[in-house]
Amino acid sequence: LRRLELLTAQEAAQVQAASPLPQQVRALVDVLAGKGSHASQSLQSFIQTCSSQLHLHITVHEPMVQKHLERFQSPCGNGLESGAVQRLTNLLLVEGLTDIQQKEHDILQVETTKGLPNVSKSIPLEKLFLPLSKVSIPPRISVTIGVAGIGKSTLVKLFVCSWAKGEINRDIMFVLPLTFRELNTYEKLSAERLICSAFPHTTEPGRASATAARTLLILDGLDEFKTPLDFSNAVVCTDPKKEIQVDNLITNIIRGNLLQEVSVWVTSRPAAARQIPSGLVDRMTEIRGFRDAEMKDFLDQMFLDNRDLSSQVLQHIRANRSLHVLCTIPGFCWISGSSIAYFLKHSSDQSQEAPAVPRTLSEIYSYYFKMALSGDWLEKPRETLRTEQAVSTGKKLVSSLGRLAFYGLLRRKHVFYEQDMKAYGIDLSLLHSSLCTRLLLKEDLQASTAYYFSHLTIQEFLAALYYYTAAKRAIFDLFTESGMSWPKLGFLSHFRSAVQRAQQAEDRQLDIFLRFLSGLLSPRVNQLLSGWLLLRDEHGGFRSQAISALQGCLSAEPAVSWRAVNAMRCLQEMQHTDTAKAVEEALRRESLAGMLTPINCSALAYLLQVSDVCLEETNLSNCLTYSACKSLLSQLLFCRNLRLDNNQFKDDVMELLGSVLSVKDCQIQRLR
């Protein structure tokens, strides 16, 4: 009260207009606002001006704070294994997105960088919203990126729980977590309604004294938002009560036109994060994947009752370099661990010659889906396996989910609602089955229920299964859902169409879909899924021509592109390994000279990522011409230890190499 007596009339009027106040304070402010000869006119003018601008002040009352804390304290104790907590308490501090993060599929990002981000700085979770130095200020807009399945939502849950317990960020009075899944259910919102509808208790009156509150608004999962953010054409809004399109509301909040005093934390997959202009982002962090010890702990947690099985699964993962790199992603590690454990369980049951360990993506997911359809989960006893009728129902459900997954993928849609399910003929009562809960997760929202696939790759495999099955009988282009297109007859015509679409996709969102589609033509995958989701030996008539279609992508461009590398991976999925094996053998013997045709350059680029020969050192001595070096340039970026001895390079090549070393993505640490 003593401090209020020092206010000028205008300052008092500002306090009067801005916040609901306790009765005694309100009476004093009313008196103070009347000071001066023209106080009444000044006050009226100020209120009119203030109402046209945004000042959404969240006023703090003790009962309200207590209720808010209780909301987050109750679910804190479960769902966060110790390994996840340790990994997520230190984030990588990054300076914006790299080219590969902006342009390539999540899986390809991990494969190319070998799960090792080119970053040396880290920041503890408790300092995420604090200044980095004594002379800087706290970030207003923070963005945390991470590939699908890395743990972004888990990180948000960990932060909110730790904050609610008072362990971190005690300077933040309110943490308001929202998901873009929830925001998808609204067409229009105001800034005021955004806060109040999600957290109605924040507007309750209270008797305790009021104070200005530091507030953190969390927006989790930008990649799941139904509308792309358009900062160039968004309509400016400064009125917190005005209802506008939700995407415009988000852009105005991030720009600072609304909720200027609120800190904002956005989580997103890397490619979607590029929607936010870098000039608006005060701090960007990245979630790293598993280290070896954390991967072991994760698998031990998966197989708590069988440590021997956990060790065998880890041994198989480590034996396959490509798989080991992808298992740095927790979501992928869980799927791979489940599939390999299922394989080990059944290979020990069989007296005949043991089948090969699953090595490709398609084989891993084939085992996973076979396990899902049979109901033969590791934690279930054999007696509870599904009946034939239940398996048949499961196949129909997979088919329906496949169509939903495919057309969702084309629209970059990864979250679905009840109306989507009904539109694709999916029986909502079946979504509670154990099969469905392994493929599709459910989240009850205020206004509706959201469904999303347990991992992005589950959606992509289902999409490939649907396309593979539908392509054998479709007479129109399947990429046009309306069916209005030029006729396309035969599986191979549709396969070439899929290859072409994947090659043309700017954001590479069809790359893994194409890998899975190619993998379904593999003899091993056909054997695994025949009688379940495929017909035995049906792939035989298509395979050789499909291989030719993919090989046509390898020499289409002068420089080896990511498209060519993905085409090589598709050939590997299809078990066509001749080219890669020949180049790998020459690489091992250091006899690549004269071999580097465009196709072999693509094979070499693929091997730089997956071959054990390149694990410690990439030796390309005595084999590179100027044209071969130029075509491989974008792939050499990711070789940490690179030998280029005795290649008779001239100045033009040296200039090329110099330009590579200055690229943001470059991971070269040693160059000879």
Automatic annotation (TrEMBL):
Transport in keyword set: no
UniProt GO BP: innate immune response; regulation of apoptotic process
Keyword Iron belongs to the record: no
Domain NACHT, chain residue ranges per copy: 140-272
CARD domain span: 1-62
Any one of the GO CC terms: plasma membrane
Localization (cell): Cell membrane; Cytoplasm
Top-level taxonomic group: Eukaryota
A GO molecular-function annotation: ATP binding
PROSITE patterns in the record: CARD, NACHT
Keywords annotated in UniProt: ATP-binding, Cell membrane, Cytoplasm, Immunity, Innate immunity, Leucine-rich repeat, Lipoprotein, Membrane, Nucleotide-binding, Palmitate, Repeat
Protein name in UniProt: NLRC3 protein
Native source organism of the sequence: Cettia cetti
